[in-house]
């Protein structure tokens, strides 16, 4: 096994310097390798020694200045002010923060890049339209560089610039002035940034140009892509014998000039002339032939799930003697990975992103609430926002208050909630739904929320390190934003929120364990200088490794190439190097990629894998995750036997305890015995919910209640009332419906304007239906007398059935909507029982045998006969004629039940005969219901409506016919 790179570095340091290393500085690109080199130095020296000083490259360069580092947000605000000053001098309107923000980040990034690579600012931003001028100005450039510059300016010829070109050229002309004033502003404020530090040092005007002299020697370890400032300084320090360099390099990609992984190392060693203290590059990759496991998965998240299985099935890793790392080429896989890993010691330094945490979700929710109530000045919120707050784990609202809010909102069907009525006082954020007074209060209010959340987390008694770190970092960023906002005066709430979200997005919190023990999780970039025995790379897809996009810039590609600035190819080269170097050391390599082709995935492994497969002797063992083949096997039908507790519940409730059985329960059994069990035996009810869809059951209730109120003045009179009197009732319909809707939603409503959009629809339909019912009576009858009205208290009837050969009494329950006596226009007198229907019910049926049967074709007829039978038995009256008021069909079909041909109408002798048939049918079906040998099962021929909450239970029901065929 090859020695790890940092082990070689430690051994060479001992050989060169012995024990005298306390005044040596060791510099890395990032912090991660420092711990590992310390460990190797301890192992190599084998005794206690004075430690050298360790730095990241930015920490090291920061030693050259005592100025404060300006934050990214501070630099942004400086740039905004300075840019508007320039616009004012040009006689142009200043830009708003909203307009400038999208380009500010790009400008800052470009300025930084120009500093790092020491590009002459005035030169790159020159206005050049003449080819001859280019030849003269850039005569020291190569011919290729001059071609790139000419290609750039070719598109900006003097002849007719487009509006976009004119805007770009105006900005282009402004940028060198903006650059200089920006640098002056930093100087005035006694601040700096890293690009300025780098450039000042490289160009010999650093605040402390000789800061490197405080160390006997500076050792730079594991550097790869150097900018021009670094390359120049490194070369100078090497020549002054102040610095030495350790490059992690392999001859396989170094000696091959077209191999992208060696691009930067060839520049460092052969062009810049830096010397690798480890000597000649060994050809490790070219001489290895180990197996490499390549996994094609079915989906992005499947990579993490498959890794879980592999970690379990390989028998585990001996972390005392071996090292292992998961490298995330696609860092968005961190959360799926954490959810999929088996229980083991892990250390994560990629950081847990705020944007994927519950904290961000809570802040995002609050911002959305404030956009409604403070920015748009709305008095009501969508209920979904309140429900999200109630369900969020960090709000910690009491269970009692949460249930109270949910119950009230469900009963009132508040899909919009009045802000003034929201009470979340038991939550750790009791003022969450309080509007802020003005836009200046936005960030201070968020900071107070953070303080409350930090306190609530600490009070829990459990360590919430990640949440606390995220909240602290969030507070820092918000405070920086607030300082910048204060200087700019009034900013709209919507823009502040947009900027806050952008500023919070990059925040993350490290989930650190032991860096030297356990499974290490990191991005590819963080794995620089580090070697592991076991390596697992997730996201090894083309398009991800390497990425196919680069950061936004105002420096076009041709100019970037002309000045040697980084282009997409440089990004490819760095990615290739970071990937290839793990093949120099690791003996157990597992690569995972998503094989699904969609808008986010090519479905192909990275081209780096294909290159290694072609160029080297590594044996790539490809495994494809296969979707299991599912054969169409009929799953088991849900059948409930009437035995044990189920029989005890059925028999005990309805026979022993005298629970009443309603007409709707009876027809439910006919349509689906399984639904009857779920609803009336198991008591599985549909959970309360808030819907913005129209509710037919609520509509039916409104109509029944209003009809009772409008007809109740006539109830109990022994005399007949002329139907013309109902004209007075017609005038009261609208106001009666409005009040009843208010009652149903537990809100006081007095006029149409008080109703929301859904309630207005309900009002319109209810009013029209009621008017149709009343108008029908006016048109069809001369006079009427109300006998009974909306009585659900008095009509309970003991009905005898046989259960296992023993006569038993079952209690039937009838709700009587209306019983009246009417005199028609021709003087005919009738005693009627009337039922109102708002759905698709109708009085016409096809075949009577199909009515008196399972899965009845006219449920309304059976229910009305049920009511009539119970009423007649209790009241002693006979000859009751069932009528069905269906608003949509009343004028065409009337209200009497009949068959399609009209040969069978439910009145007079026919009606009396069919009542007897019904009673026998009722007894037969109820005895079947209480037959313990006949289980509850669904009738597969029954019509199942989309709104049926029990649909899932019917999924695998099998018809009797199918069973016989089997």
UniProtKB/TrEMBL annotation:
Highest rank taxon of the organism: Bacteria
Residue ranges of domain PD-(D/E)XK endonuclease-like in the record: 661-940
Signal peptide (UniProt feature, chain positions): none
Name of the protein in its database record: PD-(D/E)XK nuclease family protein
Organism per entry: Sphingobacterium daejeonense
């Amino acid at each position: 096994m090859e020695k790890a790179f940092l082990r070689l570095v430690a051994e060479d340091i001992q050989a060169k310097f012995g024990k005298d290393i306390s005044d040596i500085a060791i510099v890395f690109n990032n912090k991660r390798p420092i711990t590992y080199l310390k460990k190797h130095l301890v192992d190599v020296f084998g005794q206690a020694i004075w430690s050298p000083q360790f730095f990241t490259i930015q920490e090291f360069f920061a030693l050259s200045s005592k100025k404060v580092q300006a934050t990214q947000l501070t630099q942004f605000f400086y740039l905004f002010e300075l840019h508007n000053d320039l616009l004012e001098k040009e006689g142009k309107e200043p830009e708003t923060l909203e307009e400038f923000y999208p380009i500010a980040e790009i400008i800052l990034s470009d300025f930084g890049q120009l500093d790092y690579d020491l590009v002459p600012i005035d030169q790159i931003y020159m206005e050049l339209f003449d080819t001859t001028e280019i030849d003269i100005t850039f005569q020291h450039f190569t011919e290729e560089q001059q071609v790139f510059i000419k290609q750039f300016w070719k598109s900006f010829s003097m002849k007719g610039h487009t509006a976009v070109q004119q805007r770009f050229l105006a900005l282009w002309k402004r940028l060198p002035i903006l650059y200089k004033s920006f640098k002056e502003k930093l100087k005035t404020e006694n601040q700096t940034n890293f690009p300025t530090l780098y450039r000042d040092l490289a160009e010999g005007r650093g605040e402390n140009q000789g800061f490197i002299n405080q160390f006997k020697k500076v050792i730079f370890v594991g550097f790869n892509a150097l900018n021009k400032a670094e390359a120049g300084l490194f070369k100078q320090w090497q020549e002054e014998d102040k610095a030495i360099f350790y490059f992690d390099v392999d001859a396989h990609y170094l000696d091959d000039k077209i191999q992208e992984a060696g691009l930067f190392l060839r520049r460092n060693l052969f062009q810049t002339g830096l010397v690798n203290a480890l000597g000649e590059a060994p050809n490790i990759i070219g001489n290895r032939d180990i197996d490499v496991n390549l996994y094609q998965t079915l989906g992005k998240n499947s990579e993490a799930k498959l890794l879980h299985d592999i970690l379990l099935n390989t028998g585990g890793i001996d972390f005392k003697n071996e090292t292992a790392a998961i490298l995330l080429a696609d860092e968005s896989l961190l959360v799926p990975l954490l959810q999929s890993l088996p229980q083991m010691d892990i250390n994560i330094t990629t950081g847990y992103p705020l944007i994927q945490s519950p904290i961000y979700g809570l802040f995002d929710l609050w911002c959305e609430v404030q956009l409604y109530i403070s920015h748009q000045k709305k008095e009501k919120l969508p209920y979904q926002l309140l429900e999200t707050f109630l369900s969020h784990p960090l709000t910690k609202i009491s269970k009692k208050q949460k249930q109270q809010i949910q119950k009230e909102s469900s009963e009132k069907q508040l899909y919009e909630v009045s802000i003034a009525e929201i009470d979340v006082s038991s939550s750790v954020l009791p003022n969450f739904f309080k509007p802020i007074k003005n836009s200046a209060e936005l960030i201070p209010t968020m900071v107070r929320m953070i303080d409350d959340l930090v306190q609530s987390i600490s009070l829990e008694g459990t360590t919430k390190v990640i949440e606390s770190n995220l909240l602290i970092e969030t507070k820092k960023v918000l405070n920086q934003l607030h300082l910048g906002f204060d200087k700019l005066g009034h900013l709209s709430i919507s823009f502040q929120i947009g900027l806050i979200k952008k500023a919070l997005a990059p925040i993350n919190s490290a989930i650190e364990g032991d860096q030297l023990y356990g499974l290490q999780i990191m991005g590819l970039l963080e794995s620089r200088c580090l070697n592991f025995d076991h390596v697992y790379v997730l996201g090894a897809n083309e398009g991800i490794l390497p990425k196919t996009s680069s950061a936004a810039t105002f420096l076009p590609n041709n100019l970037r190439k002309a000045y040697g600035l980084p282009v997409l190819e440089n990004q490819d080269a760095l990615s290739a190097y970071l990937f290839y170097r793990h093949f120099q050391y690791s003996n157990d390599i597992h690569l995972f990629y998503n094989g699904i082709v969609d808008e986010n995935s090519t479905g192909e492994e990275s081209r780096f894998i294909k290159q290694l497969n072609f160029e080297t002797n590594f044996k790539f063992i490809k495994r494809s995750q296969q979707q299991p083949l599912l054969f169409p096997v009929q799953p088991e039908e849900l059948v409930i036997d009437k035995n044990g507790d189920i029989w005890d519940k059925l028999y005990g409730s309805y026979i022993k305890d005298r629970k009443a059985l309603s007409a709707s329960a009876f027809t439910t059994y006919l349509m689906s015995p399984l639904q009857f069990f779920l609803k009336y035996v198991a008591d599985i009810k549909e959970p309360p919910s808030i819907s913005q869809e129209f509710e037919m059951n609520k509509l039916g209730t409104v109509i029944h209640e209003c009809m009772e109120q409008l007809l109740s003045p006539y109830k109990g009179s022994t005399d007949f009332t002329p139907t013309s009197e109902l004209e007075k009732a017609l005038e009261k319909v609208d106001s009666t419906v409005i009040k009843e809707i208010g009652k149903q939603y537990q809100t006081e409503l007095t006029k149409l304007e008080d109703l929301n959009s859904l309630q207005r629809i309900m009002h319109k339909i209810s009013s029209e239906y009621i008017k149709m019912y009343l108008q029908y009576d006016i048109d069809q009858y001369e006079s009427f007398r109300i006998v009974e009205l909306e009585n659900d208290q008095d009509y309970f009837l003991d009905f005898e059935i046989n259960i296992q050969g023993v006569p038993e009494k079952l209690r039937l329950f009838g709700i009587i909507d209306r019983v009246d006596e009417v005199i028609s226009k021709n003087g005919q007198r009738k005693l009627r029982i009337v039922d109102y229907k708002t759905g698709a019910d109708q009085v016409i049926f096809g075949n009577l045998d199909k009515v008196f049967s399972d899965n009845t074709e006219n449920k309304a007829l059976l229910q009305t006969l049920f009511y009539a039978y119970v009423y007649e038995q209790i009241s002693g009256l006979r000859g009751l004629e069932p009528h069905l008021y269906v608003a949509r069909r009343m004028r065409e079909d009337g209200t009497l039940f009949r068959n399609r041909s009209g040969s069978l109408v439910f009145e007079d002798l026919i009606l009396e005969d069919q009542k007897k048939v019904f009673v026998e049918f009722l007894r037969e079906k109820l005895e079947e219901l209480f037959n313990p040998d006949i289980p509850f099962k669904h009738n597969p021929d029954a019509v199942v409506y989309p709104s049926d909450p029990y649909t899932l239970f019917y999924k695998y029901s099998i018809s009797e016919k199918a069973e016989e065929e089997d």
